[in-house]
Amino acid sequence: MKCTQVSRAGRQRGRRITRPLPACLLLALLASPALVLAQEAAPDALTVQLQQIRGMATGGQRAQAIERYNALLLEHPGNGDVLLARGRAYAWDGQYAAAESDMQAVLSKSPDYADAWSALGDMYRWSERPQQAAEAYSRWVALAPQDPSAHLARGRAWRDAGQLADARADFDAAAALGADAAEVSALRESLLPRMANPDVAAPEGYRWSASAGWDHTGFSGDRESWNDADLSLRRHFKRGSLALEMLRADHFGESDIAWALDGYVPLWSRAYANLRYQHGPSDGMLPRQAWRAEVFQGIGSGWELSASVDNLRFSDNTEFYGIGIGHYTGNWYGRYKIQHVPGVGSGSWSHRLLLRNYYSGDGDNYLEVSVGNGRSTDMDRFGTVVRDNNAAIGVAWKYYFAPNWGFKLGAGYADDDGGYDEQRVSLALYTRW
């Protein structure tokens, strides 16, 4: 390449003066292919600023980041990348209406912008709108069908919406596309039903489970302690499970044995039932007959309603009617249940509140705390033992130390309505195959 400059004097004289110039050399260097590629690869000033501000937003400086995005939008009105970045920052900050406005503005101009559909889905999921999240993620999947992240995101939204079959299909698709095996395995496990009684569930692949439990209750004063034990063998089917149980109660120096069938069956969408029948001695501490029917119905995002009837037959029949409400959010589950026993006057009432944390993110391992008062059937003790406490509190820890072996430890205290204080400890061992 030849660089020339023609001076005014040269033009006047009709002469052409040629000499190298620094600017000319610079143009020659820029024309080289290597430098052109390097120049194209270097981020522009706006990209650098967006990266810096994103670092602020993810580092906890969200208000400052949003102010910076506002300033950038004054310089670059309507820029889709800046709007999307600000929308994400709004979503991280919990300002969901503002986030949705920014993201929808981007998508109205660029409906094929996959990252914007991803961000919109995240925002809907974080604001507990799983159905809308799944719809947004579906647009992402349509635009990037080979991206396992899109299928994982939509699978989580389906799971949150209670559509477990759709969630499983997306997790399977992500696995086939090369998603991390450990992540997919954990997500598949998260589809296990987290029931009011999680001990009756088993991961996919297990058809049988068994448990053995021991329960010791000591009393204040001179009242003799109680010892209870139970054995359970449960068959897990593709839909539901059925257990055969043997129960032994050793109270006041006498022992009783009862047998029970305990089943969980799916009903319609997001509904299942617990049906139980127990047969005991003709006269003793355990009822001669007992049965329960309880129906659970999922509603909204993570909510679950329940209604139950318990019938216990000792010398005469006693019935308990219960209504419960539970809520799942992340790895937490909380449930309140009220029971009523008809009788003289207004009858009697009981209240039970339970809070559980699935600390490993699966259905196997959890910590829980329960409090209550009043006359009720105790769900932790065969579901047929009548409790009558002024106040009660209990804690439990369940842990699977191997894929098919686990245990549960429990402790509790109660102010018995008969004037005694109760101290309770329990141990249960679980296995499955």
Describe this structure in words.
The chain has 433 residues and is of the alpha+beta class. The protein has two domains: 57-189, Tetratricopeptide repeat domain (Serine Threonine Protein Phosphatase 5, Tetratricopeptide repeat, Alpha Horseshoe); 198-432, Porin (Beta Barrel). The protein is 33% helix and 38% strand. It has twelve helices and 14 strands. A 14-stranded antiparallel beta barrel has the order 1-2-3-4-5-6-7-8-9-10-11-12-13-14. A hairpin with a 4-residue loop joins strand 4 (254-266) and strand 5 (271-279). Helix 4 runs antiparallel to helix 5 (62-75), helix 4 (45-58) runs parallel beside helix 6 and helix 7 packs antiparallel against helix 8 (114-126). It is elongated and about 85 Å long. Mean pLDDT is 84; it is low at 1-21, 23-31 and 34-40.
CATH superfamily of the largest domain: monomeric porin ompg
Rg (CA only)? 33 Å
Could you tell me the CATH topology label of the largest domain: Porin
Determine the mean pLDDT. Answer: 84
> CATH top level of the largest domain?
Mainly Beta
Helix percentage range? 25-40%
What is the 3D form? elongated
Domain tally: 2
Number of strands: 14
Q: How would you sum up this structure in a few lines?
A:
With 433 residues, this protein is an alpha+beta fold.
Features:
433 residues, alpha+beta, Serine Threonine Protein Phosphatase 5, Tetratricopeptide repeat, Porin, 14-stranded antiparallel beta barrel, 14 strands, 33% helix, 38% strand, elongated, disordered N terminus
